[in-house]
Amino acid sequence: VFTYNATYAFNLLSRGLVKSGMLKKGDVVLLSTVDHHANIVPWQILAEEYGIIIDWVELHENGTIDYVSLESKLPQAKVLSITGASNVTGEVLDLERVKNIFESLPLVGGVGGGTSPNLPYKGRNTPLFILDGSQRFPHMKTDVTQYGIDFYVGTGHKVMSDTGIGFFYGKKHILR
User: Fold this and answer.
1) What mean pLDDT do residues 49-74 have?
2) Around Cβ 12, how many Cβ atoms within 10 Å?
3) Which end of the chain is more exposed for a tag (fewer CB within 10 A), N or C?
4) Cα distance between residue 36 and residue 104, in whole Å
5) What average pLDDT does range 138-146 have in this prediction?
6) Is residue 117 predicted with pLDDT exceeding 50?
């Protein structure tokens, strides 16, 4: 889906999740403080307007993601929306480690967003996984299927495009 930029994509995604009923009052969206405001602000607005709860993955003192914190908080989340590479610290998210955390979630019947029909999380009750690829996609490939990414967001100006061009990828069964 082409949009005006990543901020527009996050606004469209977040509002779409609420308007479709996939995200409701009291549901938890998990973010990190090193995320770009394009990913943070739309969720903050929804928290005010619709009563969703924002929780934060903790960071180490050097500003990198604390994967133990992610692992402990992910089972309660309905959505994980996180940067694939931080424009603040330069950290590149370890998608293999995130995949392993998703794979450790309980089988269907546990807490979470919904059963993913696609590998690698088949049969697991998992949160939606939204990856902000704006800093990542110009420099490295990211296999959305391999890592179970439900939505992948990017902005054109990171690849020298005109401003006002962005995109998001979404799994068809979720977009329907």
Assistant:
1) 95
2) 18
3) C
4) 27
5) 84
6) no
Q: How far apart are CA 27 and CA 52, in angstroms?
A: 5
Q: Quote the crossing angle between the two packed helices 37-50 and 6-19, to the nearest 10°.
A: 30
Answer yes or no: are the C-beta atoms of 110 and 75 closer than 8 Å.
yes
* Of 162, 170, 158, 150, the residue nearest 134 (C-alpha): 158
Cα separation, 30 vs 42, in Å, equals 13
**Looking at residue 72, what is its pLDDT?**
95
Sequence-distant (6+) residues with CB within 8 A of 94 are 65, 67
Query: Which residue did the predictor score with more confidence, 30 or 63?
Result: 30
DSSP letters, 99-115, are HHHHHTSPBTTSSSSEE
Give the CB-side neighbour count of residue 7, counting CA atoms within 13 A.
9
In the chain, beta strands by DSSP E: 2-3, 28-32, 53-57, 79-83, 114-115, 125-126, 128-132, 151-155, 166-170
pLDDT at 118 over 50: no
pTM of the model: 0.85
Query: Are 18 and 46 a contacting pair, CB within 8 Å?
Result: yes
Q: Is residue 149 within 8 Å of residue 131, measured between CB atoms?
A: yes
